[in-house]
Amino acid sequence: GGTMAFTAGYWALYKFNPDLICYIGCDMIYEGSKTHFYGKGTADPLRNDKTLKNLKAKSARLEALALKQGCSIINFSALHSSNLVFPRLKISELYKNKKPQNRKINYQKIDMALKKELELGYFIEDGRYWKRMAEFDTVEIEILDKIWLSTVS
Question: Rounded to an integer, what distance in angstroms lies between the CA atom of residue 64 and that of residue 110?
């Protein structure tokens, strides 16, 4: 599911400190006969929660934080649409030593988004945020998502 893709990205980013993370067959699009590397995917069962409404913003957050520490994230997927905002690249281009073009990040917007996250205080220590969903404000999450979307260009 989508949350697992983001969790894996953050884990790789902070555990291995890579300079490149690549996604393929994980666009979080669920319409069509072949949507994922393993065939037809289904949406994350938690997808209906108010924190996961804007998957593009969630991917922008991951990319902005990765770029901030010198790691590019690209999408190898051949699907036309994606909920990942990462730049596209063909695998063959990477083999030809074509460096993915880093997008520019807005450090001021990243700081603004991280400050907003702290103010909201939605970090749940045990990770089971869905049990405390009533504490989350949809409007505030939408504002935060818009900030994250503005961090990469």
Answer: 7
User: Residue 75 class from Cβ within 10 Å (0-12 exposed, 13-18 middle, 19+ buried)?
Assistant: buried
Q: Is 152 helix (H, G, I), strand (E, B) or coil?
A: strand
pTM: 0.86
Tens digit of pLDDT for each residue in 48-71?
677 878 989 999 999 999 999 999
CA nearest to 86, candidates 56, 44, 43, 108: 56
Distance CA 88, CA 77 (A): 7
- The rounded Cα 21 to chain-centroid distance in angstroms is 12
The pLDDT of residue 35 is 64
Between 78 and 57, residue with greater pLDDT: 57
Shortest CA distance to 28 belongs to which of 65, 1, 61? 1
